[in-house]
Design a protein that fits this description.
alpha/beta; 7-stranded mixed β-sheet; two-stranded antiparallel ribbon; 6 helices; 29% helix; globular
Length: 218
């Protein structure tokens, strides 16, 4: 392991201890994934030394890689299991998909910004995340041909909960999605059972807007 690798490994351990465990994330699968995935590879070279900081970072195209704690919180709320098939709406840098890929059977991720779609796919291949399936499309419509999903995670703020995503969630499935206006949202967890949908408010958050037919208009 070279000097830079050792440095980033140390920063990653500190990130998990100070930012994630200290704030109450306890799922061992989530903590192990956050320890393992090299977050610094999901940002530009110029920002690598900030990759493990307690804040989001720009990734181009007016998009961001979320604060590490938010990634961990949303992943834990999704209650991912090793046999799960998870749909992610908004691939972005690819970091959230990589975290999930360490835990679940397969991740399906959709990105509507082409440069981010191609960039993340190349990185998944480089890091050998062969259980991540990518698609260039409007994520608000979901991925009907691969549904139903055990979990759906939306990594951008939506004015509403898109109906296609609810319909593509399996019975017993969970969805985590930020819902609100352009400036702030509430992180909502949905649980789908044979009686319908139950919602839990996990607290305030702020994401870039979810653009698409069932989200914000471009």
């Amino acid at each position: 392991m070279d000097e830079n690798s050792i440095k980033y490994e140390r920063q990653r351990q500190e990130m998990v201890r100070r930012q994630i465990e200290a704030r109450g994330v306890t799922d061992p699968k989530v903590l192990a994934a956050m320890h393992k995935v090299p977050r610094h590879l999901f940002v530009s070279d110029a920002l690598r030394d900030q990759a493990y900081g307690d804040f989001p970072l720009p990734i181009g195209e007016q998009q961001t890689i979320s604060q590490p704690y938010i990634v961990a919180e949303m992943t834990q709320a999704l209650q991912p299991g090793k046999d799960d098939r998870i749909l992610e709406i908004g691939t972005g840098s690819g970091y959230q998909a990589a975290i999930l890929a360490e835990i679940v059977f397969r991740v399906y991720t959709i990105e509507k910004i082409y440069p981010l779609y191609t960039q993340s796919r190349k990185l998944f291949d480089k890091l050998r995340y062969h259980n991540i399936v990518t698609k260039y499309s409007d994520g608000t419509s979901g991925w009907e041909n691969e549904s139903p999903f055990d979990g759906i995670i939306v990594t951008a703020g939506s004015p509403i909960i898109p109906k296609p995503l609810v319909s593509q969630l399996a019975v017993g499935g969970r969805m985590v999605i930020p819902v609100g206006d352009l400036y702030s949202q509430e992180l909502i967890k949905l649980y789908k059972d044979e009686h319908g949908i139950r919602k839990t408010n996990l607290g305030g958050c702020r994401f870039v807007k979810l653009v698409g037919e069932y989200g914000w208009r471009a």
